[in-house]
């Protein structure tokens, strides 16, 4: 004769493979928490360790080699052909914004915005524009004309040498 055990509590028997409500809820919560943490993470592919290319404590404008040094290390260096710089406008070349506010008058400024260190990206209607926070600077003297920037762009001395604008 075989012994057969019967349950008297009328409860269905559970196996380890059966998911409980608690396991399902915990799994859903863990998945949601993972998604939130991923969304809050920072992308470190930029040059700034906080994940963006903006710097809350930028170096002073023009300090990254845009200005000619006092010994004239960049003096005579061709920056741009004068014909490329329109009267009332300018061009952005390397670390500089080179402008021609009046016929035959050339100016050069650092392209690093004095607000939070973004690069200026456009010259329109007599203004040098930084699209990061909508600062604008005069093509005549680099002074701020709009936006949060309060300091002018650092100026680099330039002069016309033949058909070229060169560092002075």
Annotation field: number of helices: 1
Average pLDDT, all residues: 79
Residue fraction in strands: 25-35%
The level-1 CATH class of the largest domain? Mainly Beta
Give the radius of gyration: 32 Å
Euclidean distance between termini CA atoms: 111 Å
Q: What is the correct CATH architecture of the largest domain? A: 3-layer Sandwich
Q: Strand count, sense and closure of the main sheet?
A: 4 strands, antiparallel
User: What would you give as the CATH superfamily of the largest domain?
Assistant: Rieske [2Fe-2S] iron-sulphur domain
**How helix-rich are the residues, as a percent range?**
10-25%
Which key terms come to mind for this protein?
single chain, 168 residues, alpha+beta, 2 domains, 4-stranded antiparallel beta sheet, 11 strands, 27% strand
Description:
This protein is α+β, with helices and mostly antiparallel strands. It folds into two domains: 19-53; 78-167, Rieske Iron-sulfur Protein. The chain is 12% helix and 27% strand. The chain has one helix at 21-40, and strands spanning 78-81, 89-93, 96-102, 105-110, 122-124, 127-130, 135-138, 144-146, 155-156, 158-161, 164-167. Strands 2-3-4-9 form a four-stranded antiparallel β-sheet, with no helix packed on it. The protein has a four-stranded antiparallel β-sheet with strand order 5-6-7-8, with no helix packed on it. The model is unreliable at 43-52 and 63-72 (pLDDT under 50).
């Amino acid at each position: 004769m075989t012994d057969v055990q019967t349950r008297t509590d009328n409860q269905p028997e559970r196996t380890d493979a059966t998911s409980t409500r608690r396991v399902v809820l915990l799994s859903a919560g863990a998945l949601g928490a993972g998604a939130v943490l991923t969304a809050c993470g920072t992308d470190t592919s930029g040059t700034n360790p906080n994940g963006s290319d903006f710097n809350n404590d930028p170096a002073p404008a023009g300090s990254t080699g845009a200005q000619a040094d006092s010994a004239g290390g960049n003096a005579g260096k061709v920056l741009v052909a004068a014909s490329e710089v329109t009267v009332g406008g300018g061009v952005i070349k390397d670390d500089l914004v080179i402008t021609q506010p009046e016929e035959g008058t050339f100016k050069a400024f650092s392209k690093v915005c004095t607000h939070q260190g973004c690069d200026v990206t456009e010259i329109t209607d007599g203004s040098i524009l930084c699209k990061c926070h909508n600062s604008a600077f005069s093509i005549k003297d680099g002074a701020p004309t709009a936006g949060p920037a309060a300091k002018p762009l650092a100026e680099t001395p330039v002069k016309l040498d033949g058909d070229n604008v060169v560092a002075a």
